[in-house]
Amino acid sequence: MKDFFNVVTIEQALAFRSVFSELEMEIETVPLIDAFERVLAEPMSATENLPNFRRSTMDGYAVCASSTFGATESNPAFLTVKGTSLMGETPGFSIGSGEACRISTGGMLPVGADSVVMIEHTETIDSTTIEVLRSAAPGQHVIEPGEDFLKGEILLSAGRRLRAQEIGLLAAFGRDTLQVYRKPVVAVISTGDEVVPITETPTPGKILDINTYTLTSMIKACGAVPISYGIVRDNSESLNQTLALALKTSNMVLVSGGSSVGVRDVTIDALSALPKPRILFHGISISPGKPTILAMSQKKALWGLPGHVVSAMIVFLKVVKPFIEYISGIKGLMSQTIKVQALLSRNLSSAQGRVDYVRIKLKTVDGKLVADPILGKSGLISTMVKADGLIEIGLNVEGLDQGEPVEVELLY
Amino acid sequence: MKDFFNVVTIEQALAFRSVFSELEMEIETVPLIDAFERVLAEPMSATENLPNFRRSTMDGYAVCASSTFGATESNPAFLTVKGTSLMGETPGFSIGSGEACRISTGGMLPVGADSVVMIEHTETIDSTTIEVLRSAAPGQHVIEPGEDFLKGEILLSAGRRLRAQEIGLLAAFGRDTLQVYRKPVVAVISTGDEVVPITETPTPGKILDINTYTLTSMIKACGAVPISYGIVRDNSESLNQTLALALKTSNMVLVSGGSSVGVRDVTIDALSALPKPRILFHGISISPGKPTILAMSQKKALWGLPGHVVSAMIVFLKVVKPFIEYISGIKGLMSQTIKVQALLSRNLSSAQGRVDYVRIKLKTVDGKLVADPILGKSGLISTMVKADGLIEIGLNVEGLDQGEPVEVELLY
Prior knowledge:
Two copies of one chain form a homodimer.
Chain A: H1 10-15, E1 27-31, E2 44-45, E3 55-56, E4 60-63, E5 77-84, E6 99-103, E7 115-118, E8 122-126, E9 129-132, E10 142-143, E11 154-156, H2 164-172, E12 177-181, E13 185-191, E14 195-196, E15 207-208, H3 211-221, E16 225-232, H4 236-249, E17 252-256, H5 261-272, E18 278-282, E19 286-287, E20 293-297, E21 300-305, H6 309-327, E22 339-344, E23 348-349, E24 355-365, E25 368-374, H7 382-386, E26 389-393, E27 399-400, E28 405-410
Parallel strand pairs in A: 5-6, 13-16, 13-17, 14-15, 17-21, 19-24, 22-25
Antiparallel strand pairs in A: 1-12, 2-11, 3-10, 4-6, 4-7, 5-9, 8-9, 18-20, 20-21, 22-28, 23-27, 24-25, 24-26, 26-28
Helix pairs in contact in A: 3-6, 4-5
């Protein structure tokens, strides 16, 4: 098993998501007020017309449009005000030709009325008479029943991540509880005999455990729930024990560290000792992040991530995150990556046969957005703290030229 | 007070943020593991060099670079392997000319070594002798002490919103707890005699309370804590009572509804009855969203937002959110708005003297991103559900032409 080395492209790596399709998150019922950013697990249809009555969108008078045809300031239409549409109530009267009904924004039009004249386009003559100074078109300033959604129309499909407007939509149909997928639980294990908990003072040669903190933060940003197993010594027995426990309590396991040859073997050995293990790949042709391992056991993904903080973060963002979104049940738009266009501030060279991810500081120069590469070793977290985003240099691209437009994926 | 009508531009509206500078959020101490996306309330400096020892970034041999000068595959340098640098430990020996030390990624270089030769560029002759096949440069594959951060260097200023990498940075310096600003609490009150709770079945003329759900979701997205006061009847006495209670329990109050003349008066009356009220503006020259009110009482902002769901959402995103970020203590980058460039699919007209926000569906046509306007009344939530983003048509712009490049602010 130690000699196994199956390097894949990033596209091949991402294609392995489908292997985990049997792992579907369980469904839970949550109150609508807590459902923001959750993933809908049931399709939703309109149970009613929305709105279910003819509403005004303005303050003014509900009328029959035909009563106003040809009205101008010099030749107004005189209408008789028959009453008021009280907010939230059905008017107890109907409107005919030559008649009007006082109405507020959101009020229900009386039977017979097909449009609303804005109050600004009327003059009050006396308590029961108005002048209308402009011609109204039928349907003007009115929302028709079903204009927002028709009864039976599909509102949302399962797999939709709920934004504020989808939450509002479900409120509009009175869905005070709904079914969503449970959030995936993702276990984080740090390895490395040089790594100590951040509550300790590191003796010379030791470093504090950064990856537990960056990875758990990024897991939260994906809408998943991190569970930390702390630091495990570099031997396959203790790692295997922790892996077995993590597999039981989570839907996915991340092991960070182990980018050195010896430790990589420990990770591979520990993964191989799990029930029915399958090593899907061992190495991705990206930089940083090449020494990444994906294994499967009990239908769950187990990752061996590089130990260097920048490498681990980039592999998480470019590879692990799409797997988390996949098992979260999200359909359609898979990833929430946001890109901006900028001009590259200097030449960048890149080796062919791998995809390079370069950290970028964004600057505005002469009103133009400029992408300034942050060059530095992948062990330096300072390069990520300074970075606003990442650019990608493709597999078969030798480099990029100064002034070239690039797409910067924001790190937010 | 009913005649008060002070319409401001959006820039003037946003400038009122400074009025609330006296309201500084309290500070609380949180564990680092829970600090993701919080706002730092104290400046942070490097208490040590990071790293605080000379580390290898590769698996191989630590050497004096000068021992390898001129080495090639045909004329290798022979070095004596003096021992191994164990992970997390200080090597108990030093390295001189002609000597080497086995080392793994992250290992500490022994005294005397200034560079690392990758294992791929060596051949093992016997247990204590290697051939080095390439010349090493001093500092090669090494992170120097302080190369990430020097002791005393400023890491982060107060007011920084903590991303995953900033959390990792604080872990690297052993900050297991830190001071952050408390999250602002934002109260939400719905008004309107036509509005009923979503748990009720609306009788004709009534609608369900959407705004409580969209607004609380958007408040969460800002990193603040929503508190809902439900629906208040359209009379200034009950609204005033609820406002007084909301002011006591929150840092900001949003009243939605009341875009009709009568209700607007109720909101103004209720705001005017608060202790030491000050109406800062009443109307913003934007569409949708014009009938927005900002008031201040007890140093806190109280908003009267339009009742139409789309108007309320747009005013929240463009106006209220920057105020929430301001009182959250965020310095520097104020808003997390993300924009993409796209080409407009059709002509759009706009009235001068106001800023228009148009909902956009993004499409890819012939490999280009196209912004397709969603035209529809601001009472229709369907237009927001279909929308991927918003574009802005400026104050003095008559319209935009088909094919024109536009910046689309994403709704995510």
